[in-house]
Amino acid sequence: MSKSLKPSRRDFLQGAAAVGTATMFHSATSQVFGAESPNERPAFATIGLRNQGWVITRSALAATDVVALADVDANILGATAEKMVKEKKTKKPDTYKDYRKVLDRDDIDAVLIATPDHWHTKIAVEAMYAGKDVYCEKPLTLTIAEGKLIEKVVKETGRVFQVGTMQRSQNNFIKAVALVRSGRIGDLKKVTCGINAFQSSPSIPVAPVPEGLDWDFWLGPAPKVDYRALPKIREGYGGGVPFHSNGHYSFRNWHAYSGGRMTDWGAHHVDIANWAIGDTETGPSKIKPLEFKMATEHKDGYPIAKDCYNSATDFQVQVAMPGGVQMLIKSDGDNGILFEGTKGRFFVNRGKIVGKPVEDLESNPLPSDAMEKVYGGKVTNNHVVNLINGMKARTQPISDVWSHNRMLEICHLSNIAMRLDRELSWDPDKREIIGDEQASTFMARENRKGYEINA
């Protein structure tokens, strides 16, 4: 089709909404993402730029044009735009403090979301309603209820949605899943996810908001609180921010913005464990904290102190999975996943995959297509490119929201169990906590007025 005859993005989105079918999405998107001309590269924008924001932006530049950036911190916003020009030789992207200006643009096909976790759901839902496909960093949600909402909107809008559990696009982990599914360790009996501990913090005083940071906008859906920070500075890309604070790099340590180490590294390793077990459409029956330590004292599940980190620092949580498989999530030992079956065991992390079943591959290799069967097609080590392939085909990528949420429910429930210091029973069909009204209140969280999710 000649360029002059192509539908505008506004025509495409309005037509797709009116027809409401996958066929319409596939047809129109095939025209938008024609592969023959460099001018047909999809247009992306990144919202939230520290840490993973730059990592996924850099990955996207391999196959897209990143035309816009958004961040509530003017310092990292400007630094990232300059970095794209100097290091990647791109045209300088448009920059915005308010992400909604990105969503208003008709020329942007997809957004990459790398904000703190408490912003993920609101931005993702609004992006889908604005006709954008989505890549959102892990953990996808702050609560179990948010996961259910995102699933509803994906289904309603037909958007393609990739979660940033990029270990699903790394060979070590794909091979690990293939080994388990091929029966190389017999019947799987136990899987241990080592996800490292968090450190507690000293008392963190109220401090002046750093110049260039819109603190109220950073808080967004979370409760209004003062900015806190200690003077020690953390270096690195986009550095010059406090090492201890209730924002920037330290947000994962606070219940209001994240789920601590459990939903940070847990979202990676519990995901691979769940993928290998094959329980991506169901879930656990019981979650039991064997031992744990919180960063500060809690009462009725809420931290008493307001001036220090409050997530779990050390823990061992036992999870009863379907088929009698036992999952152990712990903060000590090697970071990675140990699979144990009736015929052997092996360990995998980002740097290695070791054990006798792995050694046996030299004489008895996996079938040539074993990893492709796990991955659902040709393996790409670029997780963002896997999204782009899904956008072209109008199919969900390797880290879809449904399997991610089933896994993340384990992490959320583990956090609830530790905060309340008791075992929880879970109905994986109804996706509800059984017989514990207090624990059930932790499955959802109300957004601050003015930052509600309109869905």
From TrEMBL:
Keyword set includes Oxidoreductase: yes
Matching Gene3D superfamilies: Dihydrodipicolinate Reductase, domain 2 (3.30.360.10), NAD(P)-binding Rossmann-like Domain (3.40.50.720)
GO terms for MF: inositol 2-dehydrogenase (NAD+) activity; nucleotide binding
Domain Gfo/Idh/MocA-like oxidoreductase N-terminal: 66-164
Domain Gfo/Idh/MocA-like oxidoreductase bacterial type C-terminal: from-to ranges: 203-452
InterPro entries, per database record: Gfo/Idh/MocA-like_OxRdtase_N, Gfo/Idh/MocA_oxidrdct_glycsds, Gfo/Idh/MocA_OxRdtase_bact_C, NAD(P)-bd_dom_sf, TAT_signal, TAT_signal_bac_arc
PROSITE patterns in the record: TAT
One protein family per Pfam: GFO_IDH_MocA_C2
Keywords associated with the record: Oxidoreductase
Enzyme Commission code: 1.1.1.18
Cross-referenced PANTHER family: BCDNA.GH03377, OXIDOREDUCTASE FAMILY PROTEIN
Protein name stated in the entry: Inositol 2-dehydrogenase
Organism name: Stieleria marina
The encoding gene: iolG_2
